[in-house]
């Protein structure tokens, strides 16, 4: 790595966007094509796609359904693109984003293979200097961090990894050429959404798969399948209503949330409703009753239903019991959806290892050693998740006014106003940052809202001859209290090992990071703030 070249040329723009995933692409389109700003997008990867550029592991697909896991800002785009499956596979999402980049002529302003090493604010000049790992320098009035929420891979520091004689991979940094598992003994660590998607696919190919489970997880069948012509026609006919519904929903999915309490119906009726939701599949299982995420007893009925399903699917009662979550309630950690996950444990070539009773002690040349046994392996797959929300932002080495570093300001956990700005860092915006609904929603809905809010904000500044916007400390303080209040009104903080709380990364502050007050409610707050002259922000 070279040091930034002080003597090299400085490339000047109105705005620098870091990241070319869903958020960076749309932000570029708005700032360049609507506001006429000069914009450069800096992207570390060699292609566009953000999360979907990196996550190419076996079974990788989105848990949101394709017809609404997409942009809604262009009717033409919507009309010309056809999804092939109910849940889009990673390659199809990349093809979609490539199409968007071509259609809106975005590529000429995107610089690939460019990893940002630092961003420093100069108060006197009111400009940001952004440096890259190879020493290029950019200057801009505005910086928009569109770096994603789940892009900083978490490879656990297990002693001995470097001694492993086989190959190892993290799912979020998957080789483009794929991995050949045939004839191999594979170990998979982690049973979050990723591990649950990858397990059945790897098991079908490998000689043997050993799944190392730390926390047993609830999962509901996805019921993936091809998008048939009648469904496509229904989506086309109802497109506007569906998009409106997604925008008005608490989590950006166009589902009807039941208006009934799980506790207000008979046990028999409840069972029938859960059965129907199970058959239909997908994340909308949570919408079967209005209080699944709000009331412990209501949630316990859903949790118990899924535990019963695990018992009925998995033939070996001991394996079934190990797979049964008992330490947290359904969907208090991010709920996975699956294709034959629990069924996979009925295969002869699959072994489940319970790390709660026998933790991993080391990785040794021949495989993984737990307290009780050594498992010989040819390949280890880390499906161990991400340093979520704060990781990608802290990776940028951001320095604001008076040399203030984001790392120091967030030492005890992230603080922001609306998840959009941090006091001390003028003209820097964080898209879907901590303190915004982000990962609790269908991401494109949250992304479009942020991109549009930021574009409107820059337009507001320009129209009034203003050149600086900065969140005020009191506003960030009271927003932090609102983020806590909103989380406490749900069951979400009850899962103490959740990455929503930063619990998956050793040493990370335990703070509930996303805003759980609902996407539509949040949108209303952001609109009010803007309408009141950017209340809570200092404008200059
Ligand atoms: P997650 O949901 O963070 O899951 C990671 C899994 O890895 C989870 O089961 C963890 O157990 C496990 N894990 C993490 N570190 C270790 C160590 N050191 N030893 C053993 N097991 C470990 O990440 P995913 O990639 O599955 O999903 C991320 C999001 O992507 C998903 O929610 C969707 O939004 C898309 P734990 O539960 O912490 O005990």
TrEMBL record:
Keywords: FAD, Flavoprotein, Monooxygenase, NADP, Oxidoreductase. The gene is pamO_2. Gene3D superfamilies: FAD/NAD(P)-binding domain. GO terms for molecular function: flavin adenine dinucleotide binding; N,N-dimethylaniline monooxygenase activity; NADP binding. This is Phenylacetone monooxygenase. InterPro entries: FAD-binding_Monooxygenases (IPR050775), FAD/NAD-bd_sf (IPR036188), Flavin_mOase-like (IPR020946). Its cofactor is FAD. Belongs to the FAD-binding monooxygenase family.
């Amino acid at each position: 790595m070279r040091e930034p070249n002080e003597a090299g040329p400085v490339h000047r723009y109105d705005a620098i966007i870091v990241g070319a995933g869903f958020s960076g692409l749309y932000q570029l389109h708005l700032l360049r094509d609507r506001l006429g700003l000069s914009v450069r997008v800096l992207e570390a990867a060699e292609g566009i796609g953000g999360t979907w550029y990196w996550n190419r592991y076996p079974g990788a697909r989105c848990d949101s359904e394709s017809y609404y896991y997409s942009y809604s800002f262009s009717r033409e785009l919507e009309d010309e693109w056809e999804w092939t499956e109910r849940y889009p596979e990673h390659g199809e999402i990349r093809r979609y984003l490539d199409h968007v980049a071509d259609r809106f002529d975005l590529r000429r302003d995107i610089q690939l293979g460019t990893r940002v090493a630092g961003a420093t604010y100069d108060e006197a000049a009111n400009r940001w200097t952004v440096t890259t790992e190879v020493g290029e320098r950019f200057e801009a009035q505005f910086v928009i961090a569109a770096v994603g929420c789940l892009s900083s891979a978490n490879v656990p520091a297990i002693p001995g990894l470097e001694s492993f004689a086989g190959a190892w991979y993290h799912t979020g940094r998957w080789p483009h050429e794929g991995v050949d598992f045939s004839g191999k003994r594979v170990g998979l660590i982690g049973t979050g959404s990723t591990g649950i998607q990858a397990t059945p696919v790897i098991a079908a190919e490998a000689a043997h798969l050993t799944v190392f489970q730390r926390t047993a997880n609830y999962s509901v069948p996805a019921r993936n399948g091809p998008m048939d012509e009648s469904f496509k026609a229904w989506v086309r006919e109802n497109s506007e209503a569906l998009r409106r519904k997604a925008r008005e929903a608490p989590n950006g999915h166009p589902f009807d949330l039941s208006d009934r309490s799980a506790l207000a119906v008979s046990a028999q009726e409840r069972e029938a409703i859960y059965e129907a939701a199970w058959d239909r599949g997908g994340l909308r299982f949570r919408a079967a009753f209005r209080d699944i995420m709000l009331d412990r007893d209501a949630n316990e009925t859903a949790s118990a239903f899924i535990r019963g399903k695990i018992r009925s699917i998995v033939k070996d009662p001991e394996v079934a019991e190990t797979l049964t979550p008992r330490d947290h309630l359904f969907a208090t950690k991010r709920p996975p959806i699956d294709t034959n996950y629990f069924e996979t444990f009925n295969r002869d070539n699959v072994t489940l290892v319970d790390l709660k009773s026998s933790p991993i002690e080391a990785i040794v040349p021949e495989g993984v050693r737990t307290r009780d046994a050594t498992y010989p392996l040819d390949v280890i797959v880390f499906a161990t998740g991400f340093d979520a929300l704060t990781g990608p932002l802290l990776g940028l080495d951001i320095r604001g006014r008076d040399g203030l570093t984001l790392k120091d300001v967030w030492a005890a956990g992230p603080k922001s106003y609306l998840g959009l700005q941090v006091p001390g860092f003028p003209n820097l915006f964080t898209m879907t940052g901590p303190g915004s609904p982000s990962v609790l929603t269908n991401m494109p809905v949250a992304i479009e809202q942020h991109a549009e809010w930021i574009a409107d904000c820059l337009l507001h500044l320009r129209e009034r001859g203003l050149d600086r916007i900065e969140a005020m400390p009191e506003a960030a303080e009271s927003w932090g209290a609102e983020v806590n209040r909103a989380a406490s009104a749900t069951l979400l903080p009850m899962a103490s090992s959740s990455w929503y709380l930063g619990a998956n990364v050793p040493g990370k502050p335990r703070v509930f990071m996303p805003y759980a007050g609902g996407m539509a409610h949040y949108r209303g707050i952001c609109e009010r703030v803007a309408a009141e002259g950017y209340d809570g922000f200092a404008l200059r």
